């Protein structure tokens, strides 16, 4: 099972492949910003990938549109739209 590491806390959690990054952070006990309840609308749950970007699900056009709307880097990931498929290290601007 993939291991997700959260920076800077260094918390780690092992999750089944296909788990949403959003859910992995919650399972690790970390807060995730959201005003839409993970309905793929608010874009507040975006995360920055420090390593393992290749181990995340591909970005769909709707995810890229959300990132562009909020003037975030398109290298960011909307965590409620991103599946963990392998090991990765992620952070947010507020952790
Ligand atoms: S929680 Fe709103 S887009 Fe992810």
Strands in their spatial order, largest beta sheet: 2-1-7-4-5
Largest sheet: 5 strands, mixed
Strand tally: 7
Which small molecules are bound? FE2/S2 (inorganic) cluster
Radius of gyration, in angstroms, nearest whole number: 12 Å
Distance between the termini: 25 Å
Query: Which architecture per CATH?
Result: Roll
* Percent strand: 25-35%
Report mean pLDDT, rounded to a whole number: 97
Domain module tally: 1
Low-confidence stretches: none
- Count of separate DSSP helical elements: 2
CATH topology name: Ubiquitin-like (UB roll)
User: Which secondary-structure class do the elements indicate?
Assistant: alpha+beta
The CATH superfamily turns out to be Beta-grasp domain
Percent of residues in helical segments?
10-25%
At the first level of CATH, the class is Alpha Beta
Q: What overall geometry do the principal axes of the alpha carbons give? A: globular
**H and E order:** EEEHEHEEE
């Amino acid at each position: 099972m993939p291991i997700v590491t959260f920076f800077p806390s260094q918390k780690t959690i092992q999750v089944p492949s296909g788990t949403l990054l959003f859910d992995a952070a919650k399972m690790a006990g970390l807060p995730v910003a959201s005003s839409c309840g993970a309905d793929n609308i608010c874009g507040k749950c975006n995360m920055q990938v420090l390593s393992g970007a290749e181990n995340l699900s591909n970005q769909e056009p709707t995810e890229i549109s959300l990132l562009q709307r909020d003037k975030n880097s398109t290298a960011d990931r909307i965590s409620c739209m991103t599946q963990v498929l392998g090991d990765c290290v992620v952070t947010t601007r507020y952790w």
